[in-house]
Amino acid sequence: MPRTARPVLTKRDFVRRYAAGEFGNASPTWDTYQQWVDDRGERYGQLFHIRNRIAGGATWYDVPSRMLRTTWNMVCRRVCGHNLYISAMAPTHLTILQGEVQEGVWGLDLFYTRVRKPMRDALREDSYQVSGLRAKLLLRGALDERSWEWLRYLLDAYPGHVVEFSAYGTCWGTVPGYNTLFWEVRQY
To answer: With a threshold of 0.90, does the pTM exceed it?
Structure first.
């Protein structure tokens, strides 16, 4: 069993640690629009996601790279820029399974969807809750072996936390060879 990691205390704490790669395979992420420009972020695809450091805060999906500057500036008039960051859009059209998983009384508790949209929208549209063996079988059927092992590591290292994930029909993200992105690790 891995050593227990430092708990994730806030969304801002999570985002800093996520961008540093602490939670495994992730979407390429930039702290600011200028960082995206300096890193030539457009090489990561055509669509981007302006995300919020405030839990449950507004988010902007599918922003074309040619519109990122304009959209970023528009959003910054409504939301303080320090609360925003940018990620490359994942291949949602290839979604196999996505949701939230945590250790429960009877094994894994899984809140999930198979809808091929960004997770927030997909879970609102059509979602299910399963536990125990059913949850494990769904996850084992969707996550490749490396992703499954990493999910188990996250659940063991961050007890009392929920892990948000999306599994795709292709390997994609910051760590080669994984078909699953780990979007968030947060206390429940």
So the answer is: yes
